[in-house]
Recover the amino acids of this structure.
């Protein structure tokens, strides 16, 4: 549950902003409930998308960019269709070109969005499904609008793209809720604050045999290991930056750890992303060994 209601089912002394937030959450909750029957279709579609080669998915995830790619690409169709709406209101036929740019830009935005959605489950998946369906209908209406304009039916074309724009605005709202309300594609390690002093965390002997040692330090999850290549003792944040998976429970592949939830791969010593869907590196810790004990602190860099 996102909100905890009082025994009477309402919030006390809620201002206008709070009432708006509650109404928004109720709306998205209702949409998630309405989309629940689509789970039977969504699950096999997600499986098919996840079967795409990892090299292709790394491109769609934005691993090469260091940031999620889908949010950046959505600015192109939304910006172009906003320009088309304004130009239509001004009576300019340049709206047709703006509409076409938005249609072309919607294709890569949709592909990256489908890739992001394939990792989701429960309410996030259902809201994402509604988000995708509304976008698909909006794209179809904009294509129909462009064809109507080309055939000389400008009034019909403006009406179709106006309806599509209203849908795009609503869908953008759902996308914002996925990011800021449900934490999809945000860096799950952004607020971790490693201690600025060394603290003992485990015995050095616990790292024998390539073990991944998961532990808690001042409320932060950490995974400690020894490099198979150099013998160096390393420590990185154990909460996957993608969707919060427990890296200490993942598989080790050389000096790489594989997230058990969605398969993101990180360097155990630097925290760098080796494969998506994660795009943000894991925070790393400074490490030293003293008298057989491993001690860690915030990395100096």
């Amino acid at each position: 549950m996102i909100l905890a209601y009082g025994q009477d089912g309402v919030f006390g002394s809620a201002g206008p902003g709070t009432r708006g937030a509650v109404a928004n959450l109720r709306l998205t909750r209702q949409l998630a409930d309405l989309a629940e029957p689509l789970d039977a279709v969504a699950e096999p579609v997600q499986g098919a998308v996840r079967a795409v080669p990892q090299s292709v998915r790394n491109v769609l995830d934005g691993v090469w960019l260091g940031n999620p790619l889908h949010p950046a690409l959505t600015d192109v169709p939304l910006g172009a269709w906003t320009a088309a709406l304004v130009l239509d209101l001004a009576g300019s036929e340049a709206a047709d070109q703006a509409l076409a740019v938005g249609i072309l830009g919607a294709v890569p935005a949709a592909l990256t969005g489908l890739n992001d959605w394939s990792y989701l489950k429960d309410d996030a998946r259902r809201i994402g499904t509604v988000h995708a369906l509304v976008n698909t209908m909006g794209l179809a209406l904009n294509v129909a609008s462009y064809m109507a304009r080309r055939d000389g039916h400008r009034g019909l074309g403006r009406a179709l793209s106006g309806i599509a724009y209203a849908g795009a605005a609503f869908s953008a709202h759902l996308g914002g809720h996925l990011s800021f309300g449900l934490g999809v594609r945000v860096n799950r390690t952004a607020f971790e604050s490693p201690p600025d002093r060394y603290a003992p965390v485990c015995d050095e002997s616990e790292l024998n045999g390539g073990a991944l040692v998961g532990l808690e330090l001042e409320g932060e999850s950490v995974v400690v290991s020894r490099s198979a290549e150099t013998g160096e003792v390393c420590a990185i944040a154990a909460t996957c930056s993608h969707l919060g998976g427990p890296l200490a429970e993942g598989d080790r592949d050389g000096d790489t750890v594989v997230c058990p939830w969605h398969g993101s791969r990180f360097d155990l010593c630097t925290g760098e992303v080796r494969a998506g869907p994660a795009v943000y590196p894991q925070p790393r810790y400074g490490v030293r060994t003293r008298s057989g004990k491993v001690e860690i602190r915030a990395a100096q860099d």
Remarks:
- Strands lie at 199-203, 213-217, 220-226, 233-237, 251-253, 256-258, 265-267, 273-275, 285-290, 293-298.
